[in-house]
Write a structure and sequence with these properties.
It contains 20 helices and four strands. With about 475 residues, the protein is mainly alpha-helical. Strand 1 and strand 2 (about 150-155) form a beta hairpin. It is elongated, with a radius of gyration of 31 Å.
Length: about 475
């Protein structure tokens, strides 16, 4: 078949280059696994199996990756098949394609790479979680003011904030794990779309390729793409949450905030302004993550409204976009994780500013409820009037102002000393009394950090078992192939 030069230039050449980079290794593993299964089931003779094994062994992946597309074959599959044919002859080489199709080969390759992408993004998120846990440990008592609706709200601790980000990453890991489990199913054996009449063993090829088991419905094995959309969507959720954290980091790095200072290796100066210390690594992380999120949306768009069956839209042109999305997502997460290992917080400065802007006024209202038995609405009104009165008389004693405004509301004054009010409205007192589950009190964040550390250990243990299982399957496949 002779392809039009435009088709070669704009499609086949590009797809060949992409496939060499992304899919050659899984393609070769599939060839070996299918060969071992055919021999095990008696579908191939021992002599043909050994000849095919030797032919596969003769294929140099380095040489294939260095090859240029010349238009004499349609794609990487046929290019490799031609190498096999050259090594063992057309008749023997043709037997390798018994009970399989490019359709189920493609879908198997995609899932093999997809599971690697998922594990890679999980590993990147583990690095970030570990960096944030270290910050939480160092700053369990570092108080600073946080914002709601972009305005100063209440004091909390650096540990409390970081643990909130960590919990989000824990949920991301759980979602990635679920996506991995649904991705790690083997379509090989579904053939074109209806399976085969040969007595193949799909469980064997699944084990040899490190899958947890075969997919079931042969039509769905070829047609479905929900496993891909699930992992892409999970990545998009992770990236969205990550971007919100990155946005805070950039604000905190500004001179106006001065909450955090990153290590010198993650900032750049200016060619004209000697004083500049730009947190460009975090800016890059934001841009890279935004690009990855756009790629995730593009993946869904490419698949949307395509027929439920074998279709190009989910194949050659889509897979490089999936690869790029996961690569960029992992880059963005790893970069922030590395930068956070160098992050410095000035605890004294942060605490000195934490109560500015009446951020502890809620605690005064709470105290009036606890001490004087007031309804919270009434206590809230007194606290609000106190703030307004202080703005009008900035030099007046806070205790005297409280007595005045409470008399207006209650008909009788509430008496506190200035010293008592200073304690009630201190940022440290505000934080330390909030010992409820998930609160910012150091005793509670220490407990939560311990839980987070154990969860990270469990997630990393699952990741290690999973990657070890893939390595063990690869070793078993090599041993079974050698034994043919």
């Amino acid at each position: 078949m002779r392809f039009a030069p435009e088709y070669v230039t704009y499609v086949l050449n590009e797809n060949f280059e992409d496939a060499k980079e992304l899919l050659l290794s899984p393609l070769m593993a599939i060839n070996y696994a299918h060969l071992v299964m055919l021999a095990s089931q008696g579908i191939l003779s021992a002599a043909d199996a050994r000849a095919l094994r030797d032919a596969l062994d003769s294929v140099s992946q380095d040489e294939v990756r260095a090859a240029k597309y010349d238009g004499t074959c349609e794609d990487l599959f046929f290019y490799v098949q031609r190498l096999i044919t050259n090594a063992c002859g057309e008749e023997t080489a043709g037997r390798l394609h018994t009970a399989r199709s490019r359709n189920d080969i493609d879908m198997t390759m995609y899932r093999m790479r997809q599971r690697e992408f998922i594990l890679g993004l999980m590993a990147a998120s583990f690095e970030l979680r570990r960096a944030l846990l270290e910050i939480a440990d160092r700053h369990s008592a570092t108080i600073f003011a946080v914002h709601t609706h972009t305005q100063r709200a209440q004091p909390t601790t650096v540990a409390h904030y970081m643990l909130a980000v960590i919990e989000q990453l824990e949920r991301d890991a759980a979602r990635l794990r679920g996506a991995y489990e649904r991705t790690n199913r083997n379509p090989l054996g579904a053939c074109a779309i209806t399976g085969t009449g040969f007595p193949i063993d799909r469980q064997l090829t699944s084990e040899l390729l490190g899958f947890s088991g075969p997919t079931v419905n042969t039509y769905g094995s070829i047609a479905t793409v929900d496993y891909l959309l699930e992992s892409v969507s999970v990545a998009a959720v992770l990236l969205t949450g990550h971007g919100r954290f990155v946005q805070d980091l950039l604000l905190w790095s500004s001179a106006e905030f001065s909450y955090v200072r990153l290590g010198d290796g993650f900032v750049q100066g200016s060619s004209i302004m000697p004083q500049k210390r730009n947190p460009v690594a975090i800016e890059h992380a934001r841009a890279i993550a935004s690009k990855a999120l756009g790629q995730a949306q593009a993946i869904v768009t490419c698949v949307h409204n395509t027929p439920f069956g074998d279709i190009v839209d989910t194949e050659d042109d889509l897979q490089p976009l999936v690869f790029a999305m996961f690569l960029d997502a992992s880059r963005a997460v790893k970069l922030v994780g590395a930068a956070m290992k160098t992050a410095e917080f000035d605890a004294a400065r942060l605490e000195a500013r934490a109560a500015d802007g009446w951020t502890t006024l809620t605690e005064l209202a709470d105290t009036l409820v606890r001490d004087r038995g007031l309804p919270f609405g009434t206590a809230h009104a007194i606290a609000s009037r106190l703030m307004a009165a202080r703005d009008g008389e900035p030099k007046q004693s806070l205790a005297a102002l409280l007595a005045d405004v409470s008399r207006e509301v209650l008909g009788t004054p509430l008496t506190y000393t200035d010293q008592a009010l200073a304690e009630i409205m201190s940022a440290r007192h505000f934080v330390e009394v909030r010992k409820t589950l998930g609160g910012p009190a150091p005793s509670e964040t220490a407990r939560a950090a311990g839980v987070a550390r154990r969860q990270l250990e469990q997630d990393e243990a699952w990741w290690t078992r999973t990657t070890d299982a893939l390595g063990a399957a690869e070793k078993t496949l090599a041993e079974r192939s050698t034994a043919l």
